[in-house]
Write a structure and sequence with these properties.
297 residues, Rossmann fold, 4-stranded parallel β-sheet, 10 helices
């Protein structure tokens, strides 16, 4: 046991708890987007072992999010001692308690038609009241109490991101850049499609036709044009404007597609160049070329 303990490191633990129907699943997803390794409804008896495993340098999970609720009947009673043990081991623990008014919780359950965890033998208002009484100690001990009654999903995600940004900075959505050919069909999963068929086409240059937009000669043909430079500057200005706004909306992913006729030359070059520029600004970028290997019709 001495060898694993020697490689232990501190873990940032965020526990999301509170009233059922107040948004715990949304909060867990927000933590995942912020880089936390999350488990919902882990039995409290396993929490210390799980955090110790994540603290092992060989596992490398320095940020952990835990969703805990009354489905684990013992967690309210055991939580004070469990938190002390985690903090004594050097871990940072933050408890976020989510709440909503009773009428909002009733409405949400009516809309989703889910069964309340304490609903057996009770009608819904009574189950909500019983849960509120049971969780009162958790609310009093929480580091942050959020009333989600009037919050949208985006509001809650933004609030969670602000909470954890000191230990896990949220830098905005990961960007996927895709190229495609319009003659093979428009991409269906793109959030933004940019048609670049107005740019000079390497297809009509015999020496460039068999090459792709990744080839330097093709890229130079496309990029060394005033119209391309102007277009790229405008695209980057657009992205510099919208990416922070997407981040404020807690958007985790953004897919931007560039389309040309065959998806082999211009769209490929533009996706590669925009990706290169975004990476210079620290943006996480993935590039995919759907039609680069298709033969010309």
């Amino acid at each position: 046991m001495s060898e694993p303990l020697a490689s232990m490191s501190a873990v940032d633990v965020v526990v999301v708890t509170g009233m059922s129907g107040s948004g715990r699943s949304t909060a867990i997803h927000a933590l995942e987007d912020a880089g936390y390794y999350c488990i919902d409804n882990l039995p409290s008896a396993l929490v210390a072992q799980f955090v110790a495993l994540c603290a092992d340098a060989r596992v490398g999970k320095p940020k952990v999010g835990l969703g805990m609720d009354v489905r684990d009947a013992t967690y309210v009673e055991t939580w004070p001692s469990l938190r002390k043990a985690l903090e004594k081991a050097g871990h940072t623990v933050t408890v976020v308690y989510l709440d909503s008014t009773d009428d909002v919780l009733v409405r949400r359950y009516s809309e989703t038609r889910r069964v309340h965890p304490l609903g057996a033998g009770r009608d819904l208002p009574d189950a909500i009241g019983a849960e509120r009484t049971l969780l009162a100690p958790m609310e009093l001990a929480a580091d942050l109490v959020l009333d989600t009654s009037a919050m949208t999903v985006h509001d809650l995600k933004k609030r969670l991101h602000r909470l954890v940004e000191g230990s896990a900075a949220y830098v905005g959505p990961s960007v996927t850049l895709k190229s495609f050919g319009f003659k093979f069909g428009v991409l269906g999963d793109a959030d933004m499609i940019l048609d670049v068929r107005f740019l000079p086409n390497p297809h009509f240059v015999d020496t460039l036709r068999p090459r792709s937009g990744r080839d330097k000669a093709v890229a130079d043909f496309v990029l060394q044009r005033d119209v391309t430079r102007d277009f790229l500057d405008r695209v980057m200005n657009l992205l510099e404007f919208v990416l922070p706004l997407y981040a404020e909306e807690a958007r985790a992913y953004l897919t931007i597609a560039f389309g040309c006729t065959g998806g082999r030359h211009r769209s490929v070059t533009l996706a590669e160049e925009v990706g290169r520029r975004l990476r210079q600004h620290g943006v996480s970028v993935t590039i995919r070329h759907r039609d680069i290997d298709r033969e010309a019709a």
